Amino acid sequence: MNISFYTLGCKLNYAETSTLREQFEQAGHSIVEFGEPTDAVIINTCTVTENADTECRKIIRRALRTSLQAFVGVTGCYAQLQPEEIATIEGVDAVFGSKEKFEIQSIFKDFQKLDTPQIHVSDLSDVEFTESYSSENDSRSRAFLKLQDGCNYNCSFCTIPLARGESRSMDFPAIGSRITSLIQSGFREIVLSGINLGDYRAPSGEKFIDILRFIDDSNPAARFRISSIEPNLLTPEIVELVANSRHIVPHFHIPLQSGSPEILRLMRRRYKAENYESLITTIKSSMPDCCIGVDVIVGFPGETDTHFEETFAFLHQLPISYLHVFTYSERENTPAAIYSGKVPIAKRKERTARLRNLSAMKKSEFYRSQIGTERIVIPETYNHETGLWIGWTENYVRVEFPASPSIIQAPVRVRLVEFLGDTVRAELLEQPMLEDNHTPHYIPILL
Predict the structure, then answer these.
(1) Range of the domain at 178
(2) Residues 143 and 250 in one domain
(3) Is 296 part of any domain?
(4) Do residue 173 and residue 200 come from a single domain?
C-alpha cells in the first residue's frame, strides 16, 4: 500500500509523524510524497493555530484531488479535542486521538474508503510516552528528538494539557543510544524537544539538567539545541552549563506571553515580568552573543491599550533577538474563553502587526551585531540557482555562503561579512570536504 503524510503545527508533530512513517515502512508499506497518488493519507493536526478546522479541510481537499478514493485518517491535537467535528468533514474516514496515534495499524488492517467515518479517541489519563524523532523536510543535518510530552500546567488560554495529557518523559538510559543512532545516521545537530521540556523528569528521577550534563560529558560529535523552555524552569544552573558547554549551543527560546503583570496573572503564568527580565539579563551577561527568542500572545481577554503598551515597552527594552507573535483566539474548554473584556479582532491584528515589526527590528539588530564574527555553520540546503548553501550558526543566525553542491553537510567555520535582511552572507574560513572524499570530516564519537 502507498501512504503519504502531512503535518501541521509544531516540531514535536513532525517528530511524531516521522515515527508513524517509520512504523508503516517497517510494516512493508511504501511512503510517497504528499500530493502524489496514494492509497491512504494520514494528517497530523495542530490545535494552537487559529484556523485548525480550515487548514485541515484544505489539506484533505488537496489529498483527494490526486487520490479521490484514498483513505483519509486524521490524528493529532485537533483530532483529540474535536473528533466529532473532524468526522463531519467530507472525505474523512477515521479520526485517531493522541493515544491512538501510534496504534493506527493495529486498529486498521485494511485502509479502504469507509461509508461512515470511525472515531477512535480515548481518555488520556493513562497515556504513555512514545519516543519520536525527525529531521527537517529539507535537511539531513538536523534532527528533532522528543524527550518529553504533555503538560501539567494550566495556563488559562491553552488546550495542550487536554490534547496531550499529563507530563511524561523519555527513559533516561534510552537517550544516549538514541543520540548515538542519530549521529550515526548523519545528523550533526540535534534539537532537544518537548511540550514542556524543562519539566522533564525520567521515571528514574533524572531532570532536564542531567540530560545536558550527560551530553556534555559524553563529548558527542554533534551540537545540541534546546527547542523551547519555560522561564521558571530555565534555572541559573542550566544557563551556566550552556555558557560553558562545548556542545549545547547559545540559543534559548523562552515563552513570555505578556509583559503586563495583570495579564500574566490572568493567563496563570508561573513567573512575573521582573523575573523574566532578570533571566534575560543573566543569560546575556554570561553569553553576550546568545540568541534569545520570545513567544508572546496579543489580544488576550482584558488586554487594554495600556496593557499592550506595557508589553511593547517591556519587549522593546529587552536584549532579545526575535519574537514569535500569536494572535489570541478563543479555545473551547479553556478558562480564558469565558473571560470578559474580549479584544476586537481588528485591534488584535493591529497589535500583532506592531509586535511583528518590533520582531523584525530586533532580528535585524541581532544579525548586524554578528557581522565580523567567526561562527560554526552546518550546511542544510543548497540553492542551485545562486550556488549558495544555507545554514544556521550555533547562535541561530541564518547564513548563506558559496561552496560546491557536493560538500559533506558537516560543521564548517565561516566569517559573517554582510547583512542581507533575512540572512547574512558569510565567507568560508576552511574548505569543507566533498562527498567523494572518503576521509571523514567529522568523526562521530559514540555515547
Answers:
(1) 133-369
(2) yes
(3) yes
(4) yes
What is the 3-class SS of the chain, one letter each residue? CEEEEEECCCHHHHHHHHHHHHHHHHCCCEECCCCCCCCEEEEEECCCCCCHHHHHHHHHHHHHHHCCCCEEEEEEHHHHHCHHHHHCCCCCCEEECCCHHHHHHHHCCCCCCCCCCEEECCCCCCCCCCCCEEECCCCCCEEEEEEEECCCCCCCCCCHHHHHCCCEECCHHHHHHHHHHHHHCCCCEEEEEECCHHHCECCCCCEHHHHHHHHHHHCCCCEEEECCCCCCCCCHHHHHHHHCCCCECCEEECCCECCCHHHHHHHCCCCCHHHHHHHHHHHHHHCCCCEEEEEEEECCCCCCHHHHHHHHHHHHHCCCCEEEEEECCCCCCCHHHHCCCCCCHHHHHHHHHHHHHHHHHHHHHHHHHCCCCEEEEEEEEEECCCCEEEEEECCCCEEEEECCCCECCCCEEEEEEEECCCCEEEEECCCCCECCCCCCCCCCCCC
pTM of the model: 0.91
> What's the pLDDT score for residue 144?
93
Residue that is last in its domain, among 89, 120, 151 = 120
Residue pair 335/56 in contact (Cβ under 8 Å)? The answer is no
Which pLDDT score, from 0 to 100, does residue 139 have? Answer: 62
Is residue 437, in this structure, part of any structural domain at all? no
In the chain, the number of structural domains is 3
The predicted-structure confidence for 258-291, as pLDDT tens digits, reads as follows 999 999 999 999 999 999 999 999 999 999 999 9
pLDDT at res. 135: 64
What is the pLDDT, as a whole number, of residue 418? Answer: 98
With 0-12 CB in 10 A as exposed, 13-18 as middle and 19+ as buried, what is 91?
middle
CA dihedral 187, 190, 195, 201 (to 10 degrees): 120
- Residue 163 domain flag: yes
pLDDT at 430: 85
Q: Of 120, 150, 185, which closes a domain?
A: 120
Q: What is the mean pLDDT of each run of 10 residues along the chain (447 residues)?
A: 92 90 92 93 85 82 90 95 93 94 91 93 89 70 93 95 95 96 92 97 97 95 96 98 98 98 98 98 98 98 98 99 96 95 98 99 99 96 94 98 88 96 95 56 34
Q: Are 289 and 167 contained in the same domain? A: yes
What pLDDT does residue 42 have?
96
Please report whether residue 325 resides in a domain: yes
